[in-house]
From TrEMBL:
It comes from Mycena sanguinolenta. It comes from the Eukaryota. Residues 15-50 form the F-box domain. The lineage of its organism: Eukaryota, Fungi, Dikarya, Basidiomycota, Agaricomycotina. Gene3D superfamilies: 1.20.1280.50. This is F-box domain-containing protein.
């Protein structure tokens, strides 16, 4: 009855009002409304609606900016061409950069590169000096500078804030002051990609260790995290806006991983009763743990055990022999509040396995998890996994959208989130 009333209410509105409503909706919602009656179907598949939807995906760096001129395409062409190109790229291009070596280092960590989601820039650790290169021009647009003495970049991560705009970068730094012990820092910068200027947002001391470097940094919005111990079980979680942090300590025998999504933290960890789990934790549940950032040499760090943090929801692997070793989380391009998680693990046969699950966070109600499939077997050391995930993260969702778009004016079936 409520659904029928909502449909009748929408169908009584003028097209201009419905277009305004569609401008606030995700793709899945627009398609669902378009399946209710012919009037709403015609409006839902109006070209102006899909221009807005696909331009939003481009702003979020989900669709490539260079593939098609949307204005020149019909609605059907926009849906088909752009979603096909997102699901599986048709061509690849080899680009060669010519960096000038800044040091004699030959270690792998000193020459890492990361392609940014827009495909226009790459971050390069050039023998301990971090640089941002414009792929189209084969030139450096920014080079990392710091006030930390004898600083050397070890690992880094970045988040783009739109095309040709700002890059947020978290940097794991180790320093070798003269006649002093080794020190570790986390720095966060915003970089204006147009003029190459940087704004240092945070410099924080990290716990010391003689047998490891800071590793696996992530950054999203106001938050960043880095692993601070050699066992990969402790994370330093940072709110750079509030200039605060806390350290969470996971299971001592297995790696943990962290990802940030709106209003939540996703934590991969093993429980004390030896169950591999992925937790959804509300940012509100972390409010009592934050302490001010420090740069003092005598800083003390007190970790919080992951078991003690309140969880909003938890996913457990139904296969007892599977051990989680890595995790990647991607926002759905079609439905707001839906996420695809790719988990890499190992089993009793000593082979690496990659499987995915979906997480749906409704605006009201409990989050829902659904395991999708076992994808392939790979060795734990394979570094191609993140790149494979970038291409495959939502292919099933795109196939679902095409089926729904081709269904015309047939009635919409009930959607079970995440499955």
């Amino acid at each position: 009855m409520e659904s029928m009333s909502a449909t009748m209410l929408l169908s009584d509105l003028a097209p201009e009002l419905i277009f305004s409503i569609f401008a606030c909706c995700d793709i899945s919602s627009v398609v669902s409304v378009g399946q209710t009656c012919r009037y709403l179907h015609a409006l839902a598949f109006d070209k102006s609606v899909w221009l807005g939807l696909l331009n939003n995906l481009r702003r979020r760096l989900i669709l490539d900016h260079c593939t098609h001129n949307l204005e020149a395409l019909s609605t059907d062409e926009m849906i088909g061409a752009n979603l096909d190109s997102y699901s599986a790229p048709q061509v690849t291009k080899r680009i060669t950069l010519h960096p000038f070596g800044t040091g004699p280092g030959v270690l792998e960590w000193g020459h890492r590169a990361k392609l940014l989601p827009s495909g226009r820039y790459v971050l390069l650790n050039n023998s301990g000096t971090l640089e941002c290169w414009n792929l189209g021009d084969d030139r450096v647009v920014w080079r990392y500078t710091t006030t930390i003495e004898h600083a050397e970049v070890y690992q880094f991560a970045a988040e783009e804030k739109g095309i040709e705009s700002t890059i947020m970068i978290v940097i794991c730094v180790r320093a070798y002051p003269r006649n002093a012990r080794r020190l570790y820092y986390v720095e966060i910068f915003s970089v204006d990609i147009q003029n190459g200027t940087q704004n240092r947002l945070l410099t924080a001391r990290a716990p010391e260790s003689e047998d490891h470097f800071l590793s696996e940094p992530v950054i999203s919005g106001n938050f960043a995290a880095v692993i601070v111990d050699s066992g990969q079980t402790q994370h330093m979680i940072i709110n750079w806006v509030a200039q605060s942090y806390f350290i969470v300590d996971g299971h001592p025998d297995t790696p943990s991983r962290i990802a940030f999504i709106p209003q939540h933290l996703v934590l991969m960890n093993r429980s004390l009763d030896e169950k591999d789990q992925i937790h959804l934790i509300s940012n509100d549940a972390l409010s009592t743990y934050w302490v001010p950032i420090t740069t003092r040499d005598d800083a003390e760090f007190s970790p919080i055990f992951a078991e003690n943090i309140p969880k909003r929801s938890t996913f457990e692997d139904p296969h007892a022999e599977q051990t989680f070793t890595d995790m990647h989380v991607h926002e759905s391009p079609l439905r707001e509040g839906d996420y695809r998680l790719w988990i890499h693990g190992s089993n009793r046969a000593a082979k690496g396995g990659l499987f995915s699950c979906t997480l749906s966070i409704p605006s009201n109600g409990m989050p829902q998890w659904c395991q999708r499939m076992v994808t392939l077997c790979v060795t734990p050391a394979v570094e191609v996994i993140p790149y494979f995930l970038q291409l495959s993260r939502h292919r099933l969702n795109l196939r679902e959208l095409k089926c729904r778009c081709s269904a015309g004016t047939t009635s919409a079936s009930q959607h079970t989130p995440g499955c």
